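quick q for whoever's on today - can somebody do inverse folding on this one?? i tried earlier but teh output was garbage lol. tokens:
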């Protein structure tokens, strides 16, 4: 049985290098607006053949449909069917098109509206590095653009195993554009030292904190998310506590073809985990993080890109 929250580790990258090259070159030749329509048949193929991802999409949208009215929202105004799920897939494809533009340096036509820029400026002025937690919600590449504009390097700590194909494509297309990537694989224990070195240089290190990492299924909190409990990993909070660094929450949401809204929140100047209250403190951090994800899912309901079973109804209720 798959450990709670780790279903994404068994989901292999789907698609071929040829298909990804098609998306990138289509975008560069015809522009992103036309490519958004030309990509529909490709999205249709993955929608028809991706039974598990299609089921996960419907499950997420159904949960959001049931939960949103309690918060006074109609993020998904009707019971989700195949149209809503297809739109969810298409939003992911648009995210990939934009990601190609970000990575290849074609960012001139993008406008980024930043909410909470003062948090970035305050840390940059003090020359202090920070851990940036985000999620598979919206675009992480928009966050890199905002950090670069603010004169701060944003490194990415991630598991490369499940994203090797797309990173290979982007690297081949633009070898001069070097992503600052720190591999979090268990076989690479030096990653913590790399992260610490980045922070000491006053740089930011970004982590997508909504997925449970390799071997971390026992270090999670089960917290409410869209009405049912889900596993949120402790790893980012434990890392920030050990390195005694500030923690930012940053989410970049696509508003339209040319505009991204980036939201910056200060989670903590420093995370302190008292020995006697360690479990409770981690629970509180995970609960707050999940509640902010709920908030942004309401703003952009089709930009949640976890196409696997995210919830685990059989997991224990305690941490």
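ok took a stab at it. sequence:
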């Amino acid at each position: 049985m798959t450990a709670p929250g780790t279903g994404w580790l068994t989901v292999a990258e789907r698609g071929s290098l040829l298909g990804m090259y098609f998306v990138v070159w289509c975008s560069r030749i015809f522009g992103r607006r036309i490519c958004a329509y030309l990509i529909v048949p490709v999205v249709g193929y993955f929608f028809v053949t991706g039974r598990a991802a299609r089921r996960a999409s419907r499950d997420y949208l159904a949960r959001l449909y049931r939960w949103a009215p309690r918060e006074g929202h109609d993020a998904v105004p009707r019971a989700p069917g195949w149209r809503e799920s297809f739109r969810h897939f298409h939003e992911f494809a648009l995210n990939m098109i934009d990601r190609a533009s970000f990575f290849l340096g074609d960012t001139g036509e993008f406008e980024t509206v930043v909410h909470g820029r003062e948090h970035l400026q305050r840390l940059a002025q003090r020359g202090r590095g920070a851990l940036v937690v985000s999620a598979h919600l919206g675009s992480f590449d928009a966050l890199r653009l905002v950090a670069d504009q603010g004169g701060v390097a944003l490194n990415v700590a991630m598991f490369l195993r499940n994203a090797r194909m797309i990173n290979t494509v982007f690297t081949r297309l633009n070898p001069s554009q070097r992503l600052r990537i720190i591999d979090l694989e268990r076989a690479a224990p030096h990653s913590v030292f790399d992260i610490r070195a980045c922070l000491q240089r006053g740089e930011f290190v970004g982590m997508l904190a909504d997925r449970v990492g390799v071997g971390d299924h026992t270090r999670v909190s089960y917290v409410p998310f869209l009405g049912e409990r889900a596993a949120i990993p402790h790893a980012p909070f434990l890392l920030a506590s050990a390195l005694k660094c500030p923690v930012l929450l940053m989410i970049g949401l696509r508003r339209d073809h040319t505009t991204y809204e980036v939201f910056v929140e200060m989670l903590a100047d420093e995370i302190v985990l008292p020995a006697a209250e360690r479990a409770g403190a981690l629970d509180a951090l995970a609960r707050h993080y999940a509640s902010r994800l709920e908030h942004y899912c309401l703003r952009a309901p089709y930009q949640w890109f976890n196409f696997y079973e995210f919830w685990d109804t059989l997991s224990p209720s305690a941490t």
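fwiw The radius of gyration is 19 Å. also Residues 7-299 form one domain. so keep that in mind when u check it
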